[in-house]
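Input chain follows. Return structure tokens only.
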Amino acid sequence: MMKLTPEDVRIARQFLGLTQHELAQRIGVTDTLICHWERGSKKIPKDMETKITSALGMSAEIMKELTKLRHEMAL
């Protein structure tokens, strides 16, 4: 599995129209922890990467592609 970046998580979550609270509920953590992960102030544990991809219904590879597309659209 590819390592998720904070940006990968934020962009995929926003793409699906989920709030931090909704993602937190899906994986059983607090909204605050999601916020820390998305800002990069706390590292996303490996076991949580699997829960995040499962909760969002997409692979890490797809999440990375969304991030790449977002950057390309911003140019």
